[in-house]
Structures are given as C-alpha cells and as structure tokens.
Amino acid sequence: MKVGILGATGYTGIELVRILSKHPNAKISYLSSKHFESQLISEVYPGLQGICDLILEGDDFKKAVATCDIIFSTLPHELTFEIAQMVMDAGKRLIDLGSAFRFDDFNVFKKWYGSNDDIEYDKFNKVYGLTELNREKIKNAQIVGNPGCYPTSVILALAPVLKNRVVSDKNIIIDSKSGVSGAGHEPKFSNLYSECNENTKPYNVAKHRHIPEIGQELSKIMQEEVKIVFTPHLVPMTRGILSTIYCNLGSDITLNEVYDLYQEFYKNDYFIKILNPGKYPSTKSVVGSNYCQIGFEIDEHTNTLIIMSVIDNLVKGASGQAVQNMNLMFGLPENKGLDIIRIFP
Amino acid sequence: MKVGILGATGYTGIELVRILSKHPNAKISYLSSKHFESQLISEVYPGLQGICDLILEGDDFKKAVATCDIIFSTLPHELTFEIAQMVMDAGKRLIDLGSAFRFDDFNVFKKWYGSNDDIEYDKFNKVYGLTELNREKIKNAQIVGNPGCYPTSVILALAPVLKNRVVSDKNIIIDSKSGVSGAGHEPKFSNLYSECNENTKPYNVAKHRHIPEIGQELSKIMQEEVKIVFTPHLVPMTRGILSTIYCNLGSDITLNEVYDLYQEFYKNDYFIKILNPGKYPSTKSVVGSNYCQIGFEIDEHTNTLIIMSVIDNLVKGASGQAVQNMNLMFGLPENKGLDIIRIFP
Amino acid sequence: MKVGILGATGYTGIELVRILSKHPNAKISYLSSKHFESQLISEVYPGLQGICDLILEGDDFKKAVATCDIIFSTLPHELTFEIAQMVMDAGKRLIDLGSAFRFDDFNVFKKWYGSNDDIEYDKFNKVYGLTELNREKIKNAQIVGNPGCYPTSVILALAPVLKNRVVSDKNIIIDSKSGVSGAGHEPKFSNLYSECNENTKPYNVAKHRHIPEIGQELSKIMQEEVKIVFTPHLVPMTRGILSTIYCNLGSDITLNEVYDLYQEFYKNDYFIKILNPGKYPSTKSVVGSNYCQIGFEIDEHTNTLIIMSVIDNLVKGASGQAVQNMNLMFGLPENKGLDIIRIFP
Amino acid sequence: MKVGILGATGYTGIELVRILSKHPNAKISYLSSKHFESQLISEVYPGLQGICDLILEGDDFKKAVATCDIIFSTLPHELTFEIAQMVMDAGKRLIDLGSAFRFDDFNVFKKWYGSNDDIEYDKFNKVYGLTELNREKIKNAQIVGNPGCYPTSVILALAPVLKNRVVSDKNIIIDSKSGVSGAGHEPKFSNLYSECNENTKPYNVAKHRHIPEIGQELSKIMQEEVKIVFTPHLVPMTRGILSTIYCNLGSDITLNEVYDLYQEFYKNDYFIKILNPGKYPSTKSVVGSNYCQIGFEIDEHTNTLIIMSVIDNLVKGASGQAVQNMNLMFGLPENKGLDIIRIFP
C-alpha cells in the first residue's frame, strides 16, 4: 500500500519514516515538510541516506491524497481538518498524530486547544486509536485519532483496574516523566540542549492538554466520571515516558491478584508486557520499540496502588501505534513491521 | 576551626571538601578513605590539585577526634556509633551525614535499617539537622543527624501547609526524582553510565528508608500522624532532586494565599526561595548551591495542592546543609562559606 | 541455524541477542553468563521479556559447541582458545568478539595483551573479520577474529586512500571519540554514571591495545609499514564512535576526487555510506544500525586530509559486524537480519 | 567598581552575573538584553532570584558607559565597535567577549568574519586578553579582546613548547571537543536537546573562525608562522573543552623534561595546573572553575608529543578569564572573586 506522511521532518514524522521504510507491505510515496521543502529527506537527516531519498514536497495535500492509500498527518489541526475532508471524499484513510480527532465532544477540543474551527465534527468516521482498547472499531475506521503520548501510557496502565473497579475514581494522581523529544522538533529556548540537559522540571501543571483526553477515555472505561490530577515533567533524555500513577484501592486485593488481573486483561496483546510483582519498569527497557511495560506496587499503610508504565513516546506513544493501527485497518497482523526490539544499552 | 571528614572520597565527602576548602573559618585537617587510603585526595580527584592535597588516612578515628574540633562522618552507622562515643567523650562535635542519628525512636531505625546495634541511643545529645526547622536546637547540639536528601526536599516543601493545617494529613503522595549521584559512589551495575543514561526508573517503591524519616518529622510538625506514599525515581542527571507532592486541600485557599503562607513561614530563611504563583522550579536552578526553591499549583477539579521543591541533593540535601549546621554550631552566620550561586547552564 | 552466545550479558552479548532474536535464519539455542548463571536473560534485562526468555547457563562450553552450529564468544582470550579448539574439533564455526584471533603474529598479541598463553596459534583456520575487506576469506573461515570497535572505524576510513596511495604512511593521527558502552559492562569507578556524565576524557593515550591491530591491517593494505598515533577518548553518550583522522596528502587531489575514490572503493558495500563533499558525519546518524558513514575535508594550508567516520560501536563495531560475518559464512545475504535503521532522535 | 554587562542573558552573560554577583569589589549596575528587555533577570533565570534582581535594559549603551567603570560586552562586533568608541571617549574600560578586538590585522578579522566595517582599528588601545601571556599589557589596556574558548585551551597548551622550540611549527594538529553551551544561547535546530544528546559531531572542519586567532598568537610566541589544522567537535555535555594536540617533537626530550618545562613556564600562574606525567586531564576536573589543566604523552614510535588541555569554556574560556582580566586592570589580585572550585561529580 502507498503511504504519505504530511509533516515528515518532525520527530514523529521521521519516526514514521524509520518504521515504514522497512515495513514489508508499505511503500512511502509522499513526504511533505514546510521547513525543508524541496530538499531530500536524506539531506536533512543523513542517517536516511540510501534508505529513504525522497524529495520533501510542500503543501500539495490533494496530490498526497490522490497518490496514497493512507495518509499520516502530524500537522496542526486546522490543516488536518482540511485533509480529513479530502480523505473522506476520496475514500482513503487517515491517521492523525495530532489532536484533531481524539475527542468525542468538539467543544472540549475547542476549549482546551483554543480552536475557533467551525466544522461539522460528527460527520467524520473517526475512532480514538488506542489499539488495545478499540481494536475492532479501528479496523473499519476511515479516520483514526492517534492517542497522545501521555494518554497512551496512562490509559493502558489504568484500564484493567478501572474496568474491574478495584480502585476509586476519585483523585487519581498521575505523575509523568517524559524525554525531551516529546516537546517536539521546534527551535525554542526551552528545548535547547543546555537548558534541558542536567535538568528535571514540571510544566503545564494541572493544565496540560492531555488531561481532557485522559479523562474522556478513563471515564468511558469506568462508565462514570473519573477525576485525575496530571503533572507532566521533562527529564533529560531523548525518548521515553514513565507514568507513575497513584490510586486508592477500593477493595482488599493482593499484589498477585493485581498481577493476574493485568495478565488476563492483556493476554492477547502482543505489545503489552506485565512485569512480575516486585519488578518495576524503566524507560530504557522499551526505547526504540512499540512495547508498553507495566508494573505495580501496593503501599499497605495507605492502601494505595502505585502503577508504573513505560513506553517510547515516539513509538507506542506516536508513530509505532499509528503503524499498529494502519496494520489493523489493512487487515495485517498487528505487529507487522513493528517487531523491533528495544535498544539497550 | 579544624575539621575532619571521615569517608572523604564518596560524593558527599568530596562535596564537603569542595565547600570547606574555601570556608573562611574552617581548616580541613583530617581526611579518611577506606578505598584510597594513603593516596593524596588530589590524586584521586585531580580537580583538587593545588586546592586540597592532604593524604587520605585510614581508620584512625581516635586521631581524627583528637585533632579536630568537628567531625563530619559519611560512614556506615556501626562505625558512626563508635565515633559518636569518642566525640562525646572528648567534648567535640559531630555531624553525621548517614542515617544513624536521624531518628527519635531507635527501634524505628533498627527496623528500617536492619540494624542489630545494641546501644544506648538516648544518651547521645543529638538533633535532627534540618536547619530551617531546628535552628535553635542545632546551635547547642553535640551531634547532628544531618537529614537525608529526599527528606530535606520533602519536609521543607510540606512544613508550612502542615503547620498551618491547610492540607489533610491523609494520603500525601510524594513523587521524587533524583540525579544519580544520590545512589552513591559505588561501583555496581545499576550505577553504570550505560544503564542510567537515557533511562528513568522508579526504585524501592513504598519501601525506601527515607519513609520513616519523613513520616517522623512531618508528624511532629502537624502534631499527629501523617501518612505518606513515597516513590523515588532515578533520572539521568548527576545532581538535583525534584519532589512533586500532592495533598488534599482541607480548606478553601487561593494560590496567592498559599504563596503568602510560604513567604511568611520562610521569611527569615536565606536559602529558601518561594517562587511566584504560576512559576515552577527546575533542578538546574539550584545545582551547585545550597538553595531550595519551592513552587505550587492548585488543581481545582480535585482540590489538590501540588507542591514542587528542588534542591541539589549533594548540597542542601547533604554536605551544604551539614556546613550550614556547622556554622550554627560555631556561632557563625548561617551562609558563611555557602554563598555559592548555582551553575547555569 | 543454531547459535550460541558465550558471555551473553555483556553489552556485545545482549546486542547479539537483540539482533539474532529477529534474524530469520538463526535460532538462539545457548546463552552463558558467569555473573547471572541460571537466571532468565529476561530477568536480567526486562526489555527482553517475551522476546528471549532462555536460561543463562554457566561454563559448559562442550554443550554449547555440541548443540550449536555457530558460537559467538565475548569471553577472555584464555577461554576463547579453549573453545576454539573444541569448535575446530567439532567442525563448527566460531566468531570471537574478543581479541584472541585478530593478529597475524602471536607474539604481537602476547606482548600487547600481557598473555602467557602457550598455544599453536597458526593451527587455527582464522580470518580477521573486517567484512568489507576480507569478504571472500570470511566465507570459508572456521574462526573469525571480529575486529575491535576503534579498528573498524579507522580501517574502513583509511583503506581507500592507503590502497590508492594518495596519503603518506607517516604520522597518521587518529583521534577517536567513543561512547561509554565501549568500556564494557563492568562495575568499576571509571564507568559510573556520575563520573562519565558531563565529562570528556582521553585514556590509554598512545598505549591502547587497538594500536597493533590497526597498524597490522593498515600495513597490509598499503603493503608497507604504516605508523599511526592513536588517542581514544570517552565522551558522555552510550553508543557511537567518531574517528577523526589526519593524513598528509601525498599528491594533488581535490575533495571531489577523494569522494569519487571512496565511492568507487565501496560501491558494492551495503553498509558503507560516503557523504557528499562538505558534509560531515555525526554518531547519531548510525546509532542502532550496522552502517558506517564516512566524510572528509581537505585543509589546504597544510595539505592535510581529514577523514571522519562514524559507527555504532556495539553494532558495526562489534555484534552487527559479527552477524554480517555469520551471514557470509552461511551463504546468506550480508544484510540479512541486519537491515535496521538508526534510531533518531 | 561598577560594572555593566551588555548582552547579559546569553551564556557568557549570565556566567558573568554568576561570578560578579559574589565579587567583593564589583557591583553589577547595568544589564542589557535584546530578547528579554524590561524583564527582571531573575524572572528569565529563576536561579538568580534574591541574588541578582536587576531589570534588563535595552540598547541604551550611553547610559551603560556613563554609569559604569567597566563594561563587559557579549554583543556582535558592529555594536561593540560603537561601544568601544564611547568607552574610549569616556575614559572607561571595556572587556569584549566577542571577536572584535582579538586581531592585530583588521583585514584578517574582516576576511574571516565577513565584516564590512570601515573603522580605524588601530586607534583603539587594545590588548589580546590571554591573561597568562599578556599580563603586563592587560593591566593598562583600555580595551581587552577576551580570547575565544578554543584559542584559550590551545594557546595555553602550546605556548611552553613553542616558546622553547621543542616542537616543529609544521602541521600542528588540534582536535578539540566542546560542550554544547559553546554553540551559544540560540534557538536553532542544531542546538536542540534531542539533536545534540547522544551525539558527537565535527563542524566547521578546517574553517572555524578561531583558526586565524590561534595562528596569530602561536606565531607571535614562536616568532615565525605556525601552521595548524583545527577540527572542533560538539560532544553531548553542557560545559567543558578538551583540546588534544599533536606536534612533531623536534628534539630528544623525555616526558619528565616536558613536565619540568611546563611547570617552569607556568610557575607563577594560579589557574594553570600541570598534571604529573602519566595523568591526563578530563573536563569534569575544571567545570565551574577558572582553572586550565594540562597533561601530555609522548608517542615514541612517531616522535609525537600529545598535549591535552581542559577548561570550562564559559569560565576560563570566556567570563572567568574576563573577570581575571578585570582584576588585573583594577590592580586586584588575579584570583579575586574567581577562587571557585570545580563541581564534581
């Protein structure tokens, strides 16, 4: 199948290139970049020399839609809505790595993203693309709203205990630590090496745009409103997210029972790995791969369940999951072209 | 005054050397090291050449006590109890950077540290050395149990709101991120560069030895038992601790009122900096210095107060606070020899 | 084919596991580890859970040889000589990632490695495993001495200009920068995170054991004795080697002509990428992959050719090249199982 | 004395603030910043809160000159020439951390910096500010051209052997490795964390603007034209420069004799530390301090002297040396306010 990547030189864009270049069923046919238009992608990223030497095109989205079977977009939502319409009209497929199609209620989107878009949101045949939870719907979706990196790490970690109602829906505390690539490929002061290196810092505390996305999905899983506190942090590494999540245990349950519950919940999920009781995940165990590892601990003095999950923010948290969804949409095995082992050390 | 440092080649030891070498009232007179005995400290750490060229001595603690006015110990508790007795007998002073003298109840110490020591703990004239909270007692103490790095960052952050009872004592969630120097100068697999670099990982979840220390001090501040959940993490940087703390607000209070409360609480404390509402601390703002910076946010949906504090784990979290205490014990201005600005970038 | 890895938990060992786990023609059948004997490899390295869950065996080399078609050894030379004999006797194949089989003259090996081994070195049917230069011989070798990481980066960079005699054989200056994983998976002070992080340092200046290996191979290429100066450095990153090499240009030659010469020399080599004139390589362009990138510049004021090459020290500099050699030895396409794109960012 | 810093928010600017804030004889009176005009410097850099809370002013250089005894400029040369004229007219002093006043021959400056300035360069009473070599001239200079970071590390390393003519003036190879802060506080792609982290790369090979500066000063020392090859590299750390320098030994000389020669040459220089034969410098031994450490090795096979020097690029390589020069200009001890020990680890 022919794929196009709109916004191919950002970090999620080139990660798509890395994965799709070796995908046995995909052929990259169209790449666009605003910053680097008309250069070879292998000039911008010399590591791609001889692997992907396409010319980066500009904004000719019509051509992209016309020549590709599936489009991956990493562009701002204004543009994505345009592209989505073209894709719908042409009967093609779209996976949006931005935030445009992650929401059930357009007003929530508009409020948190400061959008003035005036569109008929519900006309789009779209699905929230957290593969493990929405697998069947994704298969037939025309448009997939690929989840945010933090939401992926959080929702996968919480789904089993919320679904089984072993924790309270009140005051779920989520403390996430992300590598700096999560802040994007943007030349601004706060992304500079010398500012980020040897530095750990919280940001957008209780205000991050992933909050409504996490809340929406958790509430659907539990079938009542789930309230979360979410604090993202930047830590000095390039890739990886660790989410440490604190919940009140509503019932008497042992660590082994929690383990069994997760094992059962994810028994058919290739990319989810549950760690044995007493083991905790580290980001380095998944970097470069599409895996999510989940571990837990119980603090008995306070009856708190501590869930820890790790993903590579650019793979399972973005481009890897997007390809996982593409595989589903085209009837391929979910791990096709994604069966990559983490880099260690 | 003449100072001795027992265990001078660990990270807190050489940090004491860094600070005390330039302290106008101190003269380093005795350094010991088990690993590097009889070498020059400036051979082990060439950056000290011409600055401190003393020979590292072995275990002659008697000589140390005899020739020094004050001893800093970074040794294991078994040895520290021995040294403490010598110090008491000789009428000298001791600041212990280990855990031996941080507890009110010896049984708590024995339980958490797996100690079989059979000593008369209460005979020691000792004080918990969190300077800002115990200033008066420290002045006259013979033995100071210098606080742990995590407890320093946590207790300073929580004292104002616990003292003023604006938060609940239930389920205080503490999520701390530490640089790797906190794991000590020990050649083991988990401390290797290639394991720690590009890696974020939780450890000792709900089991870390700093839990009883934090609990003890917070409970004294609030005058009732405070229950905490504590998860430490290692992040890939050398120095710095960020503690992100989540508490239930017990009362209606605005962000500005919280700010005022902290400003008032720490108005006479040279090394505590309260950040304006809306600003959050980053570890890099204090690295190399004895400052603690504190910021906060309120999550209104859940009525949660999020407190964030940063220190340099080797300075305010260890050797800097030790020198701050030494200054107090010898009637010097608290910031003498400690008035060092952070390194940035 | 069945493969065994002796010393599977060091960095080159687990890199072999990473690559071979997904190799379509290989089946990992035997893993050994002295440190972690009888644990699952996926317990030691949780990132391998569900990917490779073999038990780490001890020193039963006989069993390894008996059950495998090819053995990869990362063990010390004393042990490797033993294993090599077993392999010879059993008519199997061996790829040694240590230094035991890299030399033509056993006395050179003994001198530089302080070895007292008393063996008949020449009886071994062995080849120096720099794939691009010794391809034909490797196909039929029973034992391959896999090159060192620095020599790989240096010899590939220099072969074209030495072979074509465009540079002088005198005073070739080689200044190499390596990531810390090159120092191995050994718990010693100099490998600790806090010592290596934010630090660049030369080591073994003019004394490194890779000097005779480089000298031997370059001299064979040029058919006269080549004299080199070699300074290795550790830089604070996990993976990657950059070698910056300075040679006196013996003849009038332009940058474009140098480029053409390299292109011609490596025209059939899948993993060697020559950069356009004016472009210089960076280690990040190859990390995680088996590629070597080479760029150059001419300093006209001094008539100096500056050659810069980058590899991933654990892939092309060790385990990747070993698998490349295995492919050759078993009649497979050279890039089978190795067609991995670098991780970026 | 009252000091002004023009361009106070770049990395050399805030390093001046760090040092001068605690200088016993200096009072920071004027700070300017184009980007952050009219903000408090402690808002831009929260680590300065309570330490330096001045408002950042704009381009009112007249006011700066009028109110200060000495001006430090980190601005582009066009502006610096303007300011220099004002300083001359007002009888004040200027230390320029840019490149405007580092050259003897204005044409060399114009050629390498692409400048079209049409000024009377020789009217300025200026000195090249490498303190150890030009101490007497600096005392009375009105304008000091503070050296570049690479030149400082290189010239200090080579001066003793060039002065004493123990090495050849031909083909001196200089391979320098710098932390990323050397690339400045500028938001561009190549300075982003995710591009620089885990990456080592050469840049401006044989073309860097520090080449003529190094050549000029070395030639003066040797009193004949010295030809150098210079390759700068960026390594993933914030601070520090290591220069590894290769020279042909012109005469028979032992390592111990080289050591004695350096010791003698720098016997009165507080900030220069010569390492014992067999010891090599590492950047971490000087980070945060104004020291320069120098070590060496002889490669006997090629008769090559390898000199290695380390400095902190922002201290001895920029702001520290600037303050050292200021001390000289005002009759103060050279190490006043600069007696800072490196941060380790």
TrEMBL record, chains A, B, C, D:
CDD domains: AGPR_1_C, AGPR_1_N
Stated name of the protein: N-acetyl-gamma-glutamyl-phosphate reductase
Gene (UniProt): argC
Pathway: Amino-acid biosynthesis; L-arginine biosynthesis; N(2)-acetyl-L-ornithine from L-glutamate: step 3/4
Active site per UniProt: C149
Subcellular location: Cytoplasm
Sequence intervals crossing the membrane: none
Keywords: Amino-acid biosynthesis, Arginine biosynthesis, Cytoplasm, NADP, Oxidoreductase
Domain Semialdehyde dehydrogenase NAD-binding: 2-141
Function as written in the Swiss-Prot or TrEMBL entry: Catalyzes the NADPH-dependent reduction of N-acetyl-5-glutamyl phosphate to yield N-acetyl-L-glutamate 5-semialdehyde.
Reaction catalysis annotation: N-acetyl-L-glutamate 5-semialdehyde + phosphate + NADP(+) = N-acetyl-L-glutamyl 5-phosphate + NADPH + H(+)
Lineage: Bacteria, Thermotogati, Thermotogota, Thermotogae, Petrotogales
Family label: Belongs to the NAGSA dehydrogenase family. Type 1 subfamily.
GO (cellular component) term, any one: cytoplasm
Cited InterPro entries: AGPR, AGPR_AS, AGPR_dimerisation_dom, AGPR_type-1, NAD(P)-bd_dom_sf, Semialdehyde_DH_NAD-bd
Any GO BP: L-arginine biosynthetic process
Enzyme nomenclature, EC number: 1.2.1.38
Enzyme class: oxidoreductase
GO molecular function term, any single one: N-acetyl-gamma-glutamyl-phosphate reductase activity
Record keyword Transcription present: no
PANTHER family: N-ACETYL-GAMMA-GLUTAMYL-PHOSPHATE REDUCTASE, CHLOROPLASTIC-RELATED, N-ACETYL-GAMMA-GLUTAMYL-PHOSPHATE REDUCTASE, CHLOROPLASTIC-RELATED-RELATED
